[in-house]
């Protein structure tokens, strides 16, 4: 199957029609790792509340390696988040996820809007079939006004002799929270021990985010811990919503490589936490934010 690169400016927007006229209101999530609000967040009445989360779903498989989308749906519902960034999302990719559209299914089950940004988009296994895609996604209770799939530097896992090159899979959506436009980005950085590609990806991320104004939220699996030198440039403009707990591996986690990060000037963090779960090989990070209009 051949690989087709997507333009960085082409929207990858799918709407879950079942959301129209109704919003999901599940019970508040029980959290096993609850932490105090971070400093510099402002008072309870100082902004618009928004709960966000990031979750690497491991193509629908749990820590046990078993594909179980019901289990992951229940976990995502329990977060009671308004916006969720997902990584390792299959869309008709292969047998490991039963050739299903995980982004679309999760959106329908949770009654949320969805934007999917493929990293890889391969020719279908059979003529006329859907393309086999793998990437990242944003689920949102708020209507998605626009979506883009940006290119950042990547070292392809589909090429036997890869070299760093621009490739898609840095997703961006704009939602409106009580009239306030908010930019949400979802990403999955390179996993290799050599940080060189992540260094380039962080530079690309900062360049893309610098083009936008207003509150900005970055959700992702960065495959590096908070103090890693390659991530240091991110913290010039962004606040790490530190949940005070590791996220990987899901069973007996030892490091935090999953992040919610927000623009310092327009977004405050009230609290952040890591729920205990084995529904994926990662744990989620959840954060309660306050969005400032100015």
From TrEMBL:
One BP annotation, GO = GPI anchor biosynthetic process
Query: SUPFAM superfamilies attached here?
Result: DNase I-like
Gene Ontology cellular-component terms listed: membrane
Q: Give the GO molecular function terms.
A: hydrolase activity
- What's the domain of life for this entry? Bacteria
InterPro entries from the UniProt entry: Endo/exonu/phosph_ase_sf, Endo/exonuclease/phosphatase, GPI-anchor_lipid_remodeler
Every copy of the Endonuclease/exonuclease/phosphatase domain together lies at 53-282
Q: Which UniProt keywords apply?
A: Hydrolase, Signal
Sorted alphabetically, which PANTHER family does this protein's record hold?
CALCOFLUOR WHITE HYPERSENSITIVE PROTEIN PRECURSOR (PTHR14859), ENDONUCLEASE_EXONUCLEASE_PHOSPHATASE DOMAIN-CONTAINING PROTEIN (PTHR14859:SF15)
UniProt name for this protein = Metal-dependent hydrolase
**The organism's taxonomic lineage, starting at the top:** Bacteria, Bacillati, Actinomycetota, Actinomycetes, Kitasatosporales
């Amino acid at each position: 199957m051949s690989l087709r690169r997507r333009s960085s400016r082409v929207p990858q927007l799918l709407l879950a029609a079942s959301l129209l006229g109704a919003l999901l209101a599940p019970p508040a999530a029980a959290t096993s790792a609850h932490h105090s609000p971070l400093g510099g967040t402002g008072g309870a009445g100082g902004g618009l509340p928004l709960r966000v989360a990031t979750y690497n779903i491991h193509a629908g498989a749990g820590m046990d390696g078993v594909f179980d989308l019901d289990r992951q749906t229940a976990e995502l519902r329990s977060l009671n988040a308004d916006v969720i960034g997902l990584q390792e999302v299959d869309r008709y990719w292969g047998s490991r996820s039963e050739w299903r559209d995980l982004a679309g299914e999760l959106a329908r089950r949770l009654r949320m809007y969805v934007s999917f940004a493929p990293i890889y988009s391969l020719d279908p296994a059979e003529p006329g079939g859907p393309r086999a895609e793998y990437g990242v996604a944003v689920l949102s209770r708020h209507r998605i006004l626009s979506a883009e799939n940006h290119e950042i530097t990547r070292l392809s896992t589909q090429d036997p002799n890869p070299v760093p090159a621009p490739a898609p899979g840095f997703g961006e959506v704009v939602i409106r929270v009580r009239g306030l436009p908010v930019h949400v980005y979802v990403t999955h950085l390179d996993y290799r021990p050599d940080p060189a590609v992540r260094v380039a990806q962080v530079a690309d991320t900062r360049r893309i985010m610098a083009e936008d104004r207003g509150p900005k939220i970055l959700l992702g699996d960065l495959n590096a811990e908070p103090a890693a030198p390659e991530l240091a440039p991110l913290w010039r403009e962004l606040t790490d919503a530190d949940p005070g707990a590791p996220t990987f591996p899901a069973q007996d986690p030892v490091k935090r490589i999953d992040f919610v990060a927000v623009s310092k000037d327009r977004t405050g963090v009230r609290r952040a936490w890591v729920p205990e779960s084995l529904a994926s090989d990662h744990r989620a990070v959840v954060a309660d934010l306050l969005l400032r209009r100015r």
